[in-house]
Design goal:
Keywords: Membrane, Protein transport, Transport
CATH class of the largest domain: Alpha Beta
Shape: globular
Domain MHD: 142-239
Distance between the termini: 38 Å
Helix content: 25-40%
CATH architecture of the largest domain: 2-Layer Sandwich
Family: Belongs to the adaptor complexes medium subunit family.
Subcellular location: Endomembrane system
Protein name: AP1M2 isoform 5
Strand content: 25-35%
Length: 239
């Protein structure tokens, strides 16, 4: 606990020297840090830890806090100190990431402190399920799914008018109100479109750096480009 006191002076010193890096070391301890608005989130390790796992965890922690407090800044940490402690206790155990899904955490860590009944401190079964992102027994009178495709086009053209670089960066967001444990399949119909317009049949839209939500069955996508998944309840980013 005393080691963290060396972090800020070290950060300031490196900044002045112009040698600031995302990983700072002091003796045997390494500080892996990220900055969010006016806060520094710092992970400390004395071992040769998996750095990408540590950074993924720090960004996931920000995501969870934002789900709870809407804005993550110094004031929201002070106002929700007890909940922050409870969340950190669930997010990590003995230095290993545990439950990092805010929807599951919200099942048993509520923001109304008076709702926390002692004696009922049982872990929701969802945490140990194969489908850890969705609770069982969800019921809706009307089954609905809303899909939003949000895209931005990046284009670089030189003075002669020829295209140097063009790409589309996008996300597919879903809002799901379905009962039970539904199995959804989303097909990419780019091949159908190419066949209709008479372009090469084996061509398909190139997807680069695709990042799926954990609910997607990756083996199905590799085989036939079908995105098959059991969705979480409510809002989430599919890919």
């Amino acid at each position: 606990m005393s080691k963290i006191e060396h972090f800020m002076p070290l950060l300031v010193q490196r900044e002045e020297e112009g040698a600031l890096a995302p990983l700072l070391s002091h003796g045997q301890v390494h500080f892996l840090w990220i900055k969010h608005s006016n806060l520094y989130l710092v992970a400390t390790t004395s071992k040769n830890a998996n750095a990408s796992l540590v950074y993924s965890f720090l960004y996931k922690t920000i995501e969870v806090f934002c789900e709870y407090f809407k804005e993550l800044e110094e004031e929201s940490i002070r106002d929700n100190f007890v909940i922050v402690y409870e969340l950190l206790d669930e997010l990590m155990d003995f230095g290993f990431p545990q439950t990092t899904d805010s929807k599951i955490l919200q099942e048993y860590i509520t923001q109304q402190s008076n709702k926390l009944e002692t004696g009922k401190s049982r872990v929701p079964p969802t945490v140990t399920n194969a489908v850890s992102w969705r609770s069982e027994g969800i019921k809706y009178k009307k089954n609905e799914v809303f899909i939003d495709v949000i895209e931005s086009v990046n284009l670089l053209v030189n003075a002669n008018g020829s295209v140097l670089l063009s790409e589309i960066v996008g996300t597919i967001k879903l809002k799901v109100f379905l009962s039970g444990m539904p199995e959804l399949r989303l097909g990419l119909n780019d091949r159908v479109l190419f066949e209709l317009t008479g372009r090469s049949k084996n061509k398909s839209v190139e997807l680069e750096d695709v990042k799926f939500h954990q609910c997607v069955r990756l083996s199905r996508f590799d085989n036939d480009r079908t995105i098959s998944f059991i969705p979480p309840d409510g809002d989430f980013e599919l890919m």
